[in-house]
Amino acid sequence: MTVAVETPQVPSVRSVLRSGAPRFVREAFGPIGAFYLGWKLGNLATGIALATGVALAMEVYEHRHGRRGTLALISAGFVVVQGVVGLLANSAVVYLAQPVLVSAIWGIACLVSVPIGRPLLGAFADAWYSFPEEARRSQAYRRIFGVESIVWGCYYLLRSAIRMLALWKGSIGLFVVVQALTGIPFTIALIVWSIRYAVRGFERELAAEPGPEPLPTGR
Description:
The chain is mainly α. It contains 8 helices and 2 strands, in the order βααααααααβ. The chain is elongated. It starts with a strand and ends with a strand.
């Protein structure tokens, strides 16, 4: 009699998209849309208050559904700080510039995380799909998400430069348009590529591993 050892399952592109896409849409359109609506219908304070409320509500929702953990607290804290700084400066430019600078910092962090062996895209991937601890400790995990961290890091830096130029040289309306054009299409394309690259990478890794040997059991 033999006992088979279960082979770990590789997530499909569809399953990862189904899990993370709704969250991405909420985060991409929610706060900035709320700010622009509040700013246009009311004033700067209304826009900041509305955007802050929407962002915090999304963080509470994610926390109640068991996602993000410490990252949720950091995100919520930044949302509050961003609103306070924007109100104190009484400037929409200062308010909107903060996440652009943070995005650039994320880009640098993504690039720095690769040579130290802790690719940042691995942490982002865990927010979309719960990888087992064994997978997170593997060389394949570091290699796959290391490549993705470099790609995303370059994208973050380039996107931040374009948005900052639009914010300082153009209008708030132009900035919102530029944010949408440099965010939604490219981010969706990169997300799809990242998921496919990771899935195929893990599939190749599993295919290269020798099959499990049956475990003998006593009679």
